[in-house]
Amino acid sequence: MKIYVPRDAAAQGMGADETAAAIAEEAKRRGIEIALVRNGSRGLLWLEPLVEVEVACTRLAYGPVQAHDVAGLFDAGFTTGQAHALGHGATEDIPYFKNQNRLTFARVGVTDPRSLEDYLSHGGYRGLAAALAMQPADIVASVTASGLRGRGGAAFPAGIKWKTVLGAQNPQKYIVCNADEGDSGTFSDRMLMEGDPFVLIEGMTIAGLATGANRGFIYLRWEYPLAKIALEAAIAAAHAADYLGQNIRGSGKAFELEVRMGAGAYICGEETSLLESLEGKRGQVRFKPPLPALQGLFGKPTVINNVITYASVPIILDRGAAFYQHFGMGRSRGTLPMQLAGNVKFGGLVEIAFGMTLRELLYDYGGGSFSGRPLRAVQVGGPLGAYLPESQFDTPLDYEAFAAIKGMLGHGGIVAFDDTVDMAAQARYAMEFCAIESCGKCTPCRIGSTRGVEVIDRLIAGENAAKQETILRDLCETLTYGSLCALGGLTPYPVISALNHFPLDFVKPVKAASASG
Amino acid sequence: MTDPTPRRVIPIKVEPPGSLTPAERATVLAACARLKSMPGALLPVLHAVQEALSFVPKDAVPLIALELNLSIAEVHGVVSFYHYFLQQRPGRHVFHVCRAEACQALGSVALEAHVKKRLGVDYHGTMSDGSVTLEPVYCLGNCALGPSLMIDQRLHGRVTPERFDELLAQSREPA
Questions:
Q1: pLDDT tens, A21-37?
Q2: A102, A197, A220, A459: least surrounded by Cβ within 10 Å?
Q3: A35-63 pLDDT, tens digit each
Q4: CA distance to partner chain B, nearest, from residue A421 (Å)
């Protein structure tokens, strides 16, 4: 009998390793033969460690299971699917899971991420097989037709980027994966790399075939050590079976892939900084043009996309552009793995087609706040995303709809705050973060962020507040229009949105009253 | 001219001076030898040095520069740019406390205060008994189950002050 205990970092953080060890020990003690599979996470994170038992081809969920619950579960007969207070029935019937459109995350939490065999038996490498039978230009056309846009945050159409690289004349081109997922509130890249590393490898291999690049790099943040282990194991397995290497599946085409570790710099999520870092330098932003597509890594034409972008490619090649394009709304096609984070009751990963409203996601999926208090503000799109008040919760999850309210969907991270949040402190933190993480290349970001913290401090202290607010708005305008990249350019989003939607938090007397009340 | 003065030879020290122990030196040299043929080798070399020595000693910088044919300024610039590279020897354990927004929404600001008080140090500081170094981190990718803390390379979620005290006690137990 198979028992699944996730190896995912979030599950591990809640004690999954101890739970797995307890299950193995208890089964041995009772003489019950089990096969323990360390899968990825299903993304129902409030239930982690989520243990699944396979009974008559159905996987039954129990969670959260701590090591001390294990003996009781065995007593209740969970190995044969008997009821228990921690039981949730069939995993795939849990509404949170059932109502999603799992395309990119189809296998995450389902398969054993160490097993190429498992990947293949769940539809893996069908996209590559299709791509190997196509001309590069047709692969690019297919990605373009799918409407896939860069999932890292900037939402640039992937097909157009690939076409530029395909058209560039150079014997050496590179495929680079941006796995420097530094936005607070996001963990989809991590979950995917830990839970289904092969799909990323397959997507990057297809990108190589499509553009004529024979070498790829995954730039991974150091904060994800388990993802590194998972990726390196998968790369070795793919290599051994000729899914990577000098002659991919006998096609005569070559693609080599390696993982490189970042070292804790948020700015390296910006594509040109990332390329500098890969070259072994300080992660300082480059001027554009030249575009990385023409002069990227080591000056060569380079495709640089996010983890989820590459991981969405295999299903597009396998099922066709029209299948993928059919999901979504407006110019936002396909699905986006949203990440419900912060103060929500049911935090986790929700992969859905674009178009659902923020409110539906927060309440129907998220179940409101974790603390039980009313939700007051939500930050969407990471530390550079706007803080939205309740009145904007009906905004549909769509790139253009968010741009229209001066926000951004970014990498799909949603951080909820309850009514104890001090929005002036959040605005101050946004500036502080920019000061800590600025690469220092351009003046508005390097100096403006520090001045921003000081101005907000004076504003909160009530020192000539009206004047400070004018200075702050002016400074934000300078950052927006004068910065070289999105770090300086978008830091004003959280600051100005907090100021516009929650002005009373910046006023001293009210702060004093609420602090004592 | 009689008795020409002998040519003065100014010794050029190829080997950078330093206080690295022979073992540390050998570690740094081995990391360079193993990795220097990689394109963009500096970050992999620094990771290897930190993994082996728990930090990047100041005197490793000129040695790495020499081995990779870079200037000392270039290597120093990279070491000091990235938050992860430690320039001082850390305690036996490194605690990375997440300071980012999703953890703030779950009370990380209070946890942060508790941690600093309990350890008696601020960020980048090491406890007086040398057991723990405290570092900030900006997101550990555990945003639905915060506040988050990473001890060495191991993640912990839903870290309350009480839970922190337990984890600290475990870390300080003699191995």
A1: 999 999 999 999 999 99
A2: A102
A3: 999 999 999 999 999 999 999 999 999 99
A4: 7
- The residue type found at A475 is L
Per-residue pLDDT band at B17 (split at 50, 70, 90): low
Q: What are the structural domains of chain A?
A: 2-98 (3.40.30.10), 116-325 (3.40.50.11540), 328-418 (3.10.20.600), 423-516 (1.20.1440.230)
* Neighboring chain B residues of A426 at a CB cutoff of 8 Å: 101, 104
The sign of the torsion formed by the CA atoms of B155, B159, B163, B169 equals positive
The number of C-beta contacts closer than 8 angstroms across A and B is 156
Q: What is the pLDDT of residue B174?
A: 72
Half-sphere exposure of A140 (CA within 13 A, CB side): 18
CA distances to B54, B136, B151, B175 from B172, in Å: 17, 20, 12, 8
pLDDT score recorded for residue B13 = 57
Nearest CA to B98 among B161, B157, B172?
B157
Residues of A in contact with B78 (CB under 8 A): 280-282
Shortest CA gap A259–chain B (Å): 10
In this prediction, residue B16 carries a pLDDT of 66
Domains of chain B: 1-89 (1.10.10.1590), 93-172 (3.40.30.10)
Cβ-based neighbours of A322, under 8 Å, separated by 6 or more:
A145
Question: Which residues in chain A are closer than 8 Å to B100, comparing Cβ atoms?
Answer: 184-185, 383
Q: Are B155 and A190 a contacting pair at CB < 8 A?
A: no
Q: Is the CB of residue B123 less than 8 Å away from at least one CB of chain A?
A: no
pLDDT at position A517 over 50? no
> Do A40 and A106 form a contact (C-beta atoms < 8 A)?
no
Q: Round to whole Å and give the CA distance between A346 and A362.
A: 9
Of A184, A261, A281, the CB nearest to B101: A184
Shortest Cα distance from A145 to chain B (angstroms)?
32
